[in-house]
């Protein structure tokens, strides 16, 4: 009962903080979109896709590794190894973060020319290189706090990071606005880099003062590095492929739109409208899903270690049904109120038509978030990444061959193909694991 109360308390804390952060983030994105325009939003979306690939290289599956290893130790009442496992995760994350920064620094020319179509300068890439080691180490510490059921500390850190990002970005953006599109992107990246560095320092202070971390003073030998790498390396390598394909997909979207007959500026503008304006509206209510989805990983990891198949079945049924009902309700609300929502946020009525179309994706997207978290808790994190790789391969091919023919309609269709294909594979994998576990017990 106590564990259930802790889980509910963590969920409520994350829910409250996530709602506030999501509202702040949404209105900040609206502010940015209205200030820099849809074309600049499209260019920054390309920069962000490259940035996300760098983050994938830097983090290399360390978050899920930290959560899994520490959760398993706590499930076995072996608290003595928590401190060593956490330290190992942070050191490994620092190394992978520095390697990622070095790779981006060396291949800066290639990234600017081939990925970003020479729309930004080298200093944008050099700036994001600074943030990668700090993001990676923060990811490891976040994994620790989730595992020890003190996710509220992650929430506090996110508040701190978001406010620093908003104030730093707004100040820098207003200072550099006259300098053009390149400096707009630099302002957004620089604001993010500052917030990531300060957020890591804040998280590290919280870690050093955490009671569970402090009382684990006995080291039982270095048996944790192999365990960490056993989880993180497969996730890392498959994540590289998945993130690389995802970045490639984002890069070829405006290229394929241009091939359909749209000019470069119009292609980037349409890309920015869907990715930077319509999708944030669709994803905003997912805060209610994400708030507890991250907590499902350590919970299902504990059930998995204890081979508690009955509990896994009960929780899975409840979570899938609840998520489906919630997502259908949100889908209906966004569909019927798309016009007033978009008019309020962007003062542009034409965006609402895309929001209405994309609202039908909500049940698929939200269910996929929950299913992926359950799979990660059941030691199927590699399968999750392989599913995402298959998804990227399919949709990238679709975008490359179909979008030049169908134009913007083809791009919208590719989003539907991606989400439906992904949830179909993920749900099939989950049902297969549950059936296999139930059969082995019987």
Would you write up a description of this structure?
- It is a single chain.
- With 442 residues, this protein is mainly alpha-helical.
- The chain has one domain (2-441).
- The chain contains 18 helices and no strands.
- Helix 2 packs antiparallel against helix 3 (82-106), helix 2 (62-75) runs antiparallel to helix 9 (224-259) and helix 12 (309-336) packs antiparallel against helix 18 (408-441).
- It is globular, with a radius of gyration of 22 Å.
How large is the share of residues in beta strands? under 5%
Question: Which regions have little confidence, pLDDT < 50, spanning 5+ residues?
Answer: 216-221
What average pLDDT do the residues reach? 82
Main β-sheet description? none
Oligomer: single chain
- The percent of residues in helical segments reads over 70%
Quickly count the helices: 18
Terminal CA distance: 27 Å
Structurally, how many domains make up the residues? 1
Coarse structural class: mainly alpha
Number of strands: 0
Order of helices and strands: HHHHHHHHHHHHHHHHHH
Radius of gyration: 22 Å
Shape annotation: globular
